[in-house]
Amino acid sequence: MQLSVIGIGPGSDAYLVPAAQQALADADIVIGYH
Prior knowledge:
With 34 residues, the protein is mainly α. It is 26% helix and 0% strand.
């Protein structure tokens, strides 16, 4: 199991680095707030 902590806001998806985009794409669970 791997835990990744990625800042996801505010802002556009275009500002995420490729490694963060891949970690989000590979994730089984994403926890955030609105």
